[in-house]
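Researcher: Here's the sequence for the chain we discussed earlier.
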Amino acid sequence: MSSAPVEKLKFKLTIAYDGKNYSGWQVQKSGIGVQQRVEEALTKLFPSVGRIHSSSRTDTGVHAIGMVAHMEIPKAEFRMTSEKLALAINAHLPEDIRVMSAQKVAADFHARFDAAGKQYRYFVWNQTAMNPLLREQAWQVPKELDLKAMRSAAKLFPGKHDFRSFAASRNYEVESTVRTLARCDIKKSGSLLTFIIEGDGFLYKMCRGIVGTLVQVGQGKIAAADIKKILETRDRRVAGMTAPAHGLVLWKVFYKSKAKVSVPKKKVEHEHSNG
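Model: Thanks. This is the structure I predict for it:
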């Protein structure tokens, strides 16, 4: 006689982390991924929990405010309220990783396949003296940048394009290098520049390739009008540099309507690679 299927509860986790000490999000053969630390914490609470599934991967040194993952917990092991879940997981995590929220979701929710888009933010400190409070979260570019030229170039990125020129190569071929960006803005607050890049998906190191190129536009090394030609060339060698990992943050993951939480509670909206 076959045993009855184990009834499980599915939860959506929104996770923030400082990526400095990690080899990216994903469980690694060598080095520690953020995912490994979260799974270790979950196993201490719910021994039968297996792999968690995320919306994205981030690279070594990249941060997140709004990484989303889902997991399933056998109902028999879940002996707390949903509201206490994030607190319980955080008690077993290092200080540089935190579950910001944990919400019960429908059984068919998938953190990756239901994601409709993502927003990354990249921070540049544009001053000769680095702000010591931002040294691990922003890339220092000492010489003054031409913001007008950079914004002119940034306007050429939104839309559906082949972004091969801005992505680093991987050890496998991706099915398509065409992506659609909804937004590429540059905000300025004093010496801090914030690059906001939003789209339906991102190639390996694509955000960092875009930011590095825009900074080189600001330095006068690349003409703003050349962005269109660089996109059309589909060759990484013709674009600008790859910006350092530590300035990049996975800010937010957007979901289709079916991914709404199954039991609406008091909802806090958290504004949140491979970028």
